[in-house]
Design goal:
The structure is a homotrimer of 179-residue chains. With 179 residues, chain A is α+β, with helices and mostly antiparallel strands. Chain A has a single domain, classed as Nuclear Transport Factor 2, Chain: A (Roll), CATH 3.10.450.50. Helix content of chain A is 23%, strand content 49%. Chain A has helices at residues 5-26, 30-34, 57-67, 155-158, and strands spanning 37-46, 50-55, 72-87, 90-103, 108-123, 126-143, 149-153, 172-174. Chain A has a seven-stranded mixed β-sheet with strand order 3-4-5-6-1-2-8. In chain A, a hairpin with a 3-residue loop joins strand 1 (37-46) and strand 2. The longest helix of chain A is centred in the N-terminal third of the chain and has 22 residues, at 5-26. Chain A starts with a helix and ends in a 5-residue tail after the last strand. Chains in contact: A-B, A-C, B-C. Strand 6 (126-143) of chain A pairs antiparallel with strand 7 of chain B.
Chain lengths: 179, 179, 179
């Protein structure tokens, strides 16, 4: 059994879509990110002590801009794709995430992994993310080692400054029971 | 020179096979894992201070269930595949692993990388792992930082509880000289 | 829209090229690395406090051999490829790097990520790296935790010994302003 050329092309394009998502997040490339989501995208991220749930591309962009701001030191490393085509213009995918997030001002560090389950749809000829959710597999939270210095922080000059940020607490619920 | 459609399909399917392996391990998905190995699979993992060697799918499942148990905080991040088709139904592959393993009760942490060399065979229409081995490239062992808290541990409720575990010391030899 | 079989084959081969690059570096496989670059390859790596710039495969090999020497504990984990074919024998690619570098003698540790932008060319039937550059996204520098032991260091016996090393300061400029 073999895939068709169209199927292999679609699998490659869906991988590109998600690679752009992680690159866009860690480089504050909002135009790139805005092109990746369906208008009615739904999100459900279940972390340790937080749960992020909302609908719509505009909410997604607000969430991303206000999470990966000028005080964020962020790595989102997503790989190990398992893409399944479920129709001519529909697909599903697992991705495995390894992420580091340091709040530069407080030096609080969160390190973890998560398993994404996404659905994709071809809309106007382009693959878009239509639903995305994850469950955390492991997560640690603690202070960054006192003698370690942050020597590069790409988002410092590109992320939203404190006075530019919006409150996004309506998109997140904080509760130790999510962990 | 180009690959055939069948060859590109096989390469994609072998990548899926190994992605499922790493996902299965970190989520205690024993049914998934059990479907990935040839009956006579052979294993040889050469780590720092340990060497794991055995034959057979049943031993492999025993090893996995008793390594990624309810006290394990585990990440197995495998990527950078180099798949070579060596016959119509045979292939080889390199994979690069980055892994974190924390023993939740003792807070001992092992972090490392390894280079896998695998052989795959199509059996009954499905690609299976027939031999897998790795050499560690780097490895560190130490206590987890005292002020860092584990906030998510997926295996805690899904891995084998202490009273369910089997002794697997016959599958592993411990010797500082393997490092 | 679909890729051709040749295009999908080229994308796979370019992924292999870069996977070999990272594997070669962390295993001191100089023959493998030497086969991956165009003769007139150009390099520009912009890190925190350092910038590496030069031209030519010979300089590249000198740089690699003298960076990943017998005192280096090194991980170069590159993934999330975004390969764009720009001609029959030309391509570009983004790659996301996560790397750890520990100087074993001083126990100084650098951890970071970088976004690579490469250009590739098919030369004599083989894809080669013709330009490679990166910008650091995040970087931390600090001492390795005192109670953590390095238990495997693959490069210790394979990397260049102190007396075999060459001075490579002409290939690197050190300046806090690059961060």
């Amino acid at each position: 059994m073999a895939y068709t050329l169209q199927q292999l092309s679609d699998i490659e394009d869906i991988k590109l879509l998600k690679h752009r998502y992680f690159r866009g997040m860690d480089t504050a490339n909002w135009d790139l990110l805005n092109s990746l989501f369906a208008d009615d995208v739904t999100v459900d991220f279940r972390g340790g002590g937080y749960r992020v749930t909302f609908t719509g591309r505009e909410n997604y962009m607000t969430f991303l801009k206000n999470s990966f701001h000028s005080d964020a030191v962020a790595m989102h490393y997503g790989s190990m794709p398992e893409i399944t085509l479920t129709g001519d213009d529909e697909a599903e995918g697992y991705w495995y995430l390894y992420d580091i997030f340091i709040q530069a001002d407080t030096r609080s560090q969160t390190t973890g992994t998560a398993l994404y389950k996404d659905r994709y749809r071809r809309i106007g000829g382009e693959w878009k993310i239509v639903t995305t959710e994850y469950d955390r597999l492991i997560e640690f939270v603690g202070p960054m080692d006192a003698s370690t210095q942050v020597t590069v922080q790409y988002l410092a000059t590109r992320g939203l400054k404190p006075e530019e940020r919006q409150d996004i607490r309506h998109l997140i619920s904080f509760d130790a029971s999510h962990g």
